[in-house]
Design goal:
113 residues
């Protein structure tokens, strides 16, 4: 596990965050669509909070772990390093994961109750 340093690699963090937003939105959309029909199984008023929550949670994971999340199994000798984080820059991934998880859980809770 990489310890927080004094300098954050903001370019890598932001690029991984943006890529994670796109990937998380697509993953959430694939999870909510029915297999043979095009309408989602989730209620229509809860669809956007669910998709935004999936996107934020995945973006937080991507911003925290960086290339280690995407490429960890393909490297056998030298593992890729994650982006450099400072103590302040760790708030972005953890906050995004917390807000994303809260949105997904609340959407599913309101749908099934």
């Amino acid at each position: 596990m990489q310890e927080p340093s004094n300098k954050a690699d903001w370019l890598a963090i932001v690029l991984q965050f943006v890529f994670g937003l796109l990937a998380g939105g697509l993953i959430g959309l694939a999870m909510v669509k029915r297999r043979y029909r095009y309408e989602p199984w989730l209620r229509e008023d809860l669809l956007w909070p669910y998709l935004i929550g999936c996107a934020l949670f995945t973006a937080g994971l991507c911003a925290k772990f960086g290339d280690r999340l995407w490429l960890s199994d393909s490297y056998r000798m030298i593992r890729p390093e994650g982006p450099g984080h400072s103590r302040g820059s760790l708030w972005l991934p953890y906050g995004a994961m917390l807000i994303g998880a809260a949105l997904v859980i609340s959407s599913l809770y309101r749908h099934f109750l």
